[in-house]
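forwarding from the other thread:

> can someone predict this with iron/sulfur cluster?

sure thing
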Amino acid sequence: MSDTARSQGAGQPPMLEVRDVARYFDVSRPLLQRLLAREGKRTLRAVDGISFAIPRGTTLSLVGESGCGKSTVARLAVGLYGTTRGEVVFDGNDLSSARADAAQRRRMQMIFQDPYASLNPRWRVLDIVAEPLRAFGLLPDRAAREKRVGELLTQVGLSPADGQKFPHEFSGGQRQRISIARALSSNPEFLVCDEPTSALDVSVQAQILNLMKDLQRRMGLTYLFISHNLAVVRQVSDRIGVMYLGRLVELAPSETLFEAPRHPYTRALMEAIPDLDMTGRERIPVGGEVPSPISPPSGCAFNPRCPLANDRCRRERPGMTRAGATLVACHAVEEGRDRQ
Amino acid sequence: MNNLSAKAAAPLLEVRNLRVEFPTRRGTLTALDDVSFSIRAGEVLGVVGESGAGKSMTGAAIIGLLEPPGRIARGEILLDGQRIDNLPREKMRRIRGKQIGAIFQDPLTTLNPLYTVGRQLQETILTHLPMTPAQARARAIHWLEEVGIPGAAQRIDSYPHEFSGGMRQRVVIALALCAEPRLVVADEPTTALDVSIQAQIIALLKRLTREHGTAVMLVTHDMGVIAETADRVAVMYAGRLAEIGPVREVVKAPRHPYSAGLMASIPPLDRKVEHLAQIDGAMPRLSAIPRGCAYYPRCPHVFERCRVERPDLIDAGTTRAACWLHDPASEKQVPFSGTGSTVHV
Ligand SMILES: Nc1ncnc2c1ncn2[C@@H]1O[C@H](COP(=O)(O)OP(=O)(O)OP(=O)(O)O)[C@@H](O)[C@H]1O
Ligand SMILES: Nc1ncnc2c1ncn2[C@@H]1O[C@H](COP(=O)(O)OP(=O)(O)OP(=O)(O)O)[C@@H](O)[C@H]1O
Ligand code: SF4
Ligand code: SF4
Ligand SMILES: [Mg+2]
Ligand SMILES: [Mg+2]
């Protein structure tokens, strides 16, 4: 992040603030089946009480196991899901309030995890990319709109002529680039990127990440970034939040997290990164069963897999405590028995 | 693979001079051109390359699911010595699933949103294996556990939309493997997965190759996964093979300038850099592939011959690369470096 972006941010509210947000899903079977099997309602706690803020012009990344709730947080952050509890505040306004309407929404965009499901198959690429422009009444002039779309397509490594084609005529990575072009079209200030480069080869990925960084430097964009690729996360993040089973377990400046991970889960995650050097090192997957979010373990949700777990961990859920620049939810860290 | 008999070492899959065309209103596009490679039983061939280069198209041609109007215009595909590219639709359908398992890049096209994941697995198992429905259900739970779905027995009756992106991807993997095929065509199987589940899936694929001699064509952008899993790697660019060879050579000492540019773009894990290395420019569109080498507009080593003549795969030390730098008859030769004939960018 550039210093100008930082100084612009001084004294202003964060771009996004998430306060003790939870989102539950009802995953009960149909009533009749439930009665036959004599089972109750089942609630899945996809996100269960998380808080963070993203200052303007900075990037916060979320990492964590598949199913831990990252995409749900992404959808909550742009108001696509309502909260079960807590509030999402965008530039000082509660997203669920009436005031946060079109004017707010046009300042935020989302790149979805699934580039297939999120592109309308019957629309030409030109119309897909221009959709936010039309929805918000920007660039009403057709020729100007087409010119803008052409520029956007070129920026993501496609060509203006691709605007005439339909999504099925493109490869997976090309479709992902179309959804990136669409998200950028209305010049949003806040962009939620859910696995934006996962379908791209490393060279196109580098182009897109360089473009995103460049936009941030020039226009002070704010990003909420989600990726399983920790090398990518390291390149783009100012701060990183590590999620486990619907909660944040560690929140730290990017370099601090990589140099000195504190939470036992974060450390296990770092151990599991694939090895490019072909040393033959066996990767150490995080041991134990991934718990189910329908019936999470008591106390610390990580306790069945944690080498440092003790009785307190099985009984009492750890709160966030500060350890240097890091916020971490772990009894062992709090008690100082993580470094023995 | 050292203990396999000579017979088993014969290729299980052979792709010869494959050419795929798309007739369109604006003329015929050549999506794949003269692609040849083979995979032995028990071997993993990694396939990498530029987004849009034709990796998924190659997989689709092998499993007989090219999307019309796309069609195989030339070449042949053999499974165990038998041609499978010209089989009647019904016969091919039976080979798919039983002999060839396919993991598609897009999990949503494979899963039917109207049926529970359990039902979809159970049906696939019953189609291909002699089992009772109860056995098939137990087997389905077993496969969901194998791919790391937590609480598999509880969640088997869920619908696809109730799963996260990565969980759906794992269901697709389970679907492809549950009939125990001999060849698995896996298109970005681990892209949506976290590193831990990814490690588990890779361990599973490796176990299948080791214990059952399953052959795997693994398409992925993740070089870490390639480095860990593949025996050999093919690099694709603009519908052709740019390079093919042993994994260590292709990743650590690439001979083709595009492979070299690709490997140089891998983001570092151990530090943050201001600007990531990238290959400037974009791959040519299918309708505008230049006459000579398709990579020449972006290639730092381009010379006269590259603009007029198209290179085929040429022996380049331990790999084969489609690049004139490796032709002894060329006026320009590889800029040699410490690591043999490695090309530097
Ligand atoms: N609409 C829904 N109905 C029921 N359950 C849901 C719904 N959406 C998500 N879930 C569940 O909520 C949990 C979190 O899902 P989410 O998509 O946020 O995970 P994620 O962290 O993005 O995972 P991935 O890395 O696989 O994309 C999962 O257990 C998922 O099954
Ligand atoms: N139905 C179609 N009509 C015309 N062209 C198509 C069609 N489907 C794919 N293509 C083109 O064929 C080329 C190869 O596509 P393919 O999906 O095989 O790429 P890929 O290597 O798998 O890329 P990615 O890594 O992005 O998934 C692309 O340039 C794409 O635009
Ligand atoms: S609170 Fe206990 S179980 Fe949880 S991560 Fe810390 S040491 Fe492990
Ligand atoms: S043939 Fe020429 S242009 Fe093509 S990769 Fe080799 S040196 Fe570069
Ligand atoms: Mg997700
Ligand atoms: Mg593909």
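The pocket of magnesium ion (ligand 5) is lined by residues A 70-71, 113, 194; B 164-165 (CB under 6 Å). thats all i got for now
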